[in-house]
Amino acid sequence: MTQSSHRPAADRCPGVFSTHTAADGAVARIRLPGGRIRADQLQILAQAAAEHADGYLEPTVRANLQLRGITDTDAVARAVIAAGLAPSTTHDKARNIEVSPLTGRIGGRADVRPIADRLDDLLRADPATAELSGRFLFGVDDGRGDIIARRPDAGARVDSVGADKTIVAVIEAGGVSLGLATGVDAIADALLSVARAVVEIAPDAWRVTDLSPAERAALATVVSEPLAPLSPIPLPPIPLSPVPLSPAQDATDDPAPAPASDPTVGWFTQDDGRILLGAVVELGRLPARLAEFLAAIEAPIILTPDREILICDLTEEVAETVVRVLAPMGLIFDATSPWARVTCCVGAPGCAKGLAPVRADLAERVRSGEPVDDLEHWVGCARGCGSPAGRHLHVEAMPDGEYRREVSIGLPHHD
Predict the structure, then answer these.
(1) Quick one: pLDDT band at residue 304, thresholds 50, 70, 90?
(2) Does the domain made of 20-90 have the CATH classification 3.40.50?
């Protein structure tokens, strides 16, 4: 099939082995399938950020991590490899796999982490998928609807779980449901087939939404062939958010569920009775020193697509210590903090395209005490880097030095 070009420019999405040169130095993006990172891995990255970058780790809108201001890209790459976070040089930028952050710990119809793990294995073993753009997104949703709402290019949402714990999932491509797959292997295979079909049908496409109607039809035909037909009446999504608890509350108090849009910030009780702490950091920048203290907890860490940092599987005693020690150091555990609702790109002078010092201006906006009623994302130019997936107030710098504010419901194109 002959295609017209879908990519007007080269794929400049940064990775570990192909960094992006910004005004403040090189930028490397480290893919973390499912947003998961071990304590020892975080420790290595924190040291690399302190020694070879600007001293910060930046969670991204795809639950990856980014280092900016890198002075020695080879040293950073060696650190990432040593941490086991770059298992493939050829598929480095293709491993964008979002997973329901709370899966297997709080709510959800099933624990979908094994699906993401299997998909990552298949993805790295397939030479064809090395051709995917760095913007292509996989999504694995445990039934609560949080990841599918982000319209991944290749998505799976748990529809039901059998008596033998076998998972049945709806397979989607660019937001269109194509059929049902049963079992971890079949679901991962179906997700991979979406990616393979895109590479075969339109190898220069950024994402599924870039395909022409004819190309989308061809993709649907290929992917849906081995899938079972969709259920006539699909199950509704389950609630997005867990029930938050403050450290002083007991789980038996039965507080009212938080609204679906509430950030996963604060103190939460996992299904197994252990504690999960959700936090954010100012301007979405985690200082390397604070990251080292996080690593010292020796607990699983999950980054969410909303740039939250989840510290998992804690006892109540450890959780109380974490809050007492790390809150004064800059980890924000308060869901009512403005920093749980505002995000931004780097802006000027770090980005040559930035029309304003976005970080400084946003920090001043927060210091002003003006209420933050809705999610806000501040950007230095029309590219809108790092924009949230859902409805938010888009605050964009203009050439005249002012900011334009408008409600956006668009989905991000890249981190």
Answers:
(1) very high
(2) no
